[in-house]
Amino acid sequence: MAKSLLCSSTLNPFFSTTLSSSTSSKKNQIAYSGNSKNQTSSLLWNRRDLSLGFMGSLVAIGLVSNDRRRQDANAAILEADDDEELLEKVKQDRKKRIERQAVLNSAVKEKGYLQDLVYKLSKVGQAIENNDLPAAGLVLGKGIDTEWVKTVNLAFTKLSTSPEENTEVEAFNSSLASLITSVNKNDIESSKLAFVSSAGAFEKWTTLTGVLEQLKGL
């Protein structure tokens, strides 16, 4: 009886420990198995997300590439249009230059009027520089209705083809009228200002029309 109790008391802790260990081991296996499944599932989802992300990136790259190709195509079309417009403008400018040159070559009489104007302005400028307004008055005359002013304006009318050129003609005539008035009034300072203004307007006009080079050859 004593042996039986001894064995019982001795073995119970052992079985208790063994059972506890076995139960703990099974729980750990179950937990590990659960964790393993969770990890596997998580890994599968991660791979799936990565795959979807990669596919999305490819699609985005494709869209961007297509958009860039469209932009390049549109730019090429616009550039071609610009080239055509530029080419047309060059043709028109060349045509105008040829027409202008033909007019200048045929305007022998008008260029003579303008050469006379250059001579008169030179003489008037020298007289004003020497404060000799009576001498300047002899060259200019008494008003803008003199014959030489009329012939100069005939040349302006024939050779002026643009609004800018006509603007300089108007500026010249206005300054010339002031110059004649100032000279006849013996106003040296106003005469100087009016002379500079009229000569400047005439020079701009000759540059715009291309007459300047023609006059140099006379």
Description of the structure:
This is Thylakoid lumenal 16.5 kDa protein, chloroplastic. Residues 113-218 form the Maintenance of Photosystem II under High light 2 C-terminal domain. It comes from Camelina sativa. The structure is a single chain. Helix 2 (108-129) packs antiparallel against helix 3 and helix 2 crosses helix 4 (147-159). The protein has helices at 2-106, 108-129, 133-140, 147-159, 163-184, 188-209, 211-216. With 218 residues, it is an all-alpha fold. The protein is built from seven helices and no strands.
Secondary structure layout:
Blueprint: H1 2-106, H2 108-129, H3 133-140, H4 147-159, H5 163-184, H6 188-209, H7 211-216
Helix pairs in contact: 2-3, 2-4, 2-6, 5-6
Would you summarize the structure shown here?
The protein is mainly α and 218 residues long. It contains 7 helices and no strands.
Straight-line distance between termini = 155 Å
Helical content stands at: over 70%
What is the radius of gyration?
A: 51 Å
What characteristic shape results from the CA principal axes? elongated
Put simply, the count of helices is 7
Number of strands: 0
| Helix/strand/pairing category | mainly alpha
Major sheet description: none
Mean pLDDT, as a whole number?
Answer: 74
